[in-house]
Specification:
Layout: E1 2-11, E2 14-24, E3 29-34, H1 40-48, E4 55-60, E5 66-69, H2 81-86, H3 90-115, H4 118-141, H5 147-157, H6 174-187, E6 192-196, H7 204-215, E7 220-224, H8 228-234, E8 237-242, E9 245-250, H9 253-274, H10 300-312, E10 316-317, H11 321-326, E11 332-333
Parallel strand pairs: 3-7, 3-8, 5-6, 6-7, 10-11
Antiparallel strand pairs: 1-2, 1-4, 8-9
Helix pairs in contact: 3-4, 5-6
This protein binds adenosine-5'-triphosphate and magnesium ion.
């Protein structure tokens, strides 16, 4: 559905992310997470085509319809709430509006017909009848005659009761106006949903309703949220904005963070192998020693002393490679060129 290739964005000297190459598929829901100001909304704006990338490309499937809930959009207070929700399906809404306009003008021209230009009115009627038939087909093809019912259902699900559906938007408070905005996006039946913090201003019941709605959604959804439980309940994958790039992890928030932690735990060991004493004799970077095990029989004071000693001592373990491997010792092997060798502080000592 969406493919990004070597995508990057920077503002002045600040690089938010770079080299982002991802494939986002239909039927998957992606939680877009990261620290405040890391670039989540910016990435979403690039996907929506609201903003130009600094480098790389974004490609959407041809003719894909996209619904975007932006953090900073506002609606006209004078509009009827139900109409606003129905506008989410622009194709059907435009067809219905044109149909109504033609029907209204036919009524007016009937009156004119009686008074004067009978021939002209008859020709206009014929043209309108053709257009009306086209519109009927268009509306039927997009399941348009259920749009009003679907819109009312979504509004209700988002906590806006039927009694106010025909009232102007201005009668609602700010938080409820945002719900109408969300309803508009959900009603659209789009192929790609981009939601920037949809749970803002929603109470717990409405969040649960939204979770169910999104669970049934068959398209490709990218959702920014700081609500971890919501993400766990809704998303199938996680896009993590960190370390100047965006990483695709499998699973909802909790599962993805476990995977991320496992990767970063593995990383120091990989780095330590890479930075083992070099042939030119330069000293390796000292890895941070693992913390003492809680199950140790030693007293906490003794553990604390050995922890301090371990931090202070050069951690070059003189044990044999097999002993180090058996003890899972991550200290540096003793180097022949160094004299201050010791067995490691942890398990080989
Ligand atoms: N048009 C812009 N010009 C300059 N800097 C910008 C612009 N838009 C965003 N930024 C900066 O880029 C950084 C990322 O902004 P963005 O809104 O994408 O973050 P975010 O991850 O969505 O944050 P939050 O979780 O607070 O919504 C921020 O430091 C922001 O100030
Ligand atoms: Mg944001």
């Amino acid at each position: 559905m969406i493919a990004t290739t070597a995508l990057g964005k920077e503002y002045g000297a600040r690089v938010l992310f770079s080299g982002v190459s991802l494939q986002l598929n239909a039927g998957s829901r992606y939680g877009l997470v990261g620290a405040n100001g890391s670039g989540k909304s910016t990435f979403m704006r690039l996907l929506a085509g609201d903003e130009e990338a600094s480098e790389g490309t974004v490609a959407l499937v041809k003719r894909a319809r996209v619904g975007v809930l932006r953090q900073d959009r506002f609606l006209d207070d004078g509009e009827i709430i139900l109409d606003l929700a129905m506008r989410g399906d622009a194709v059907v809404w435009n067809a219905l509006t044109e149909q109504r306009r033609i029907a209204d003008s036919a009524g007016q021209s009937d009156a004119a017909h009686a008074a004067d230009a009978a021939h002209a009115a008859h020709a206009a009627h014929a043209a309108d009848a053709g257009r009306m038939a086209d519109l009927e087909d268009q509306i039927a093809a997009h399941d348009g005659y259920t749009l009003e019912g679907r819109s009312a259902e979504v509004l209700q699900g988002l906590g806006i009761p039927t009694a106010v559906h025909h009232a102007p938007l201005g009668t609602l408070s700010g938080g409820f106006k945002l719900r109408v905005l969300l309803a508009q996006v959900l009603v659209g039946g789009v192929d790609i949903l981009l939601l920037d913090e949809p749970t803002n201003h929603l109470d717990i019941l409405t969040i649960r309703w939204l979770e169910k709605f999104l669970a049934d959604y068959a398209g490709c959804a990218v959702i920014i949220s700081h609500d971890q439980r919501f993400l766990d309940n809704v998303t199938s994958h996680t896009l993590d904005v960190d370390y100047g790039t965006i990483t695709l992890l499998s699973g909802g928030y909790s599962k993805a963070m476990v995977e991320k932690a496992a990767v970063s735990l593995r990383a120091p060991r990989t780095r330590s192998r890479a930075s083992a004493p070099s042939s030119n004799g330069s000293a390796p970077r000292t890895p941070r020693p693992p913390r003492p095990r809680a199950a140790s029989s030693r007293s906490s004071a003794s553990r604390s002393r050995s922890w301090r000693r371990a931090r202070a001592a050069p951690r070059r373990c003189a044990s044999s490679p097999s002993a180090r491997a058996a003890a899972r010792c991550w200290s540096w092997p003793a180097s022949a060129s160094r004299t201050a060798t010791t067995t490691c502080w942890r398990t080989c000592r």
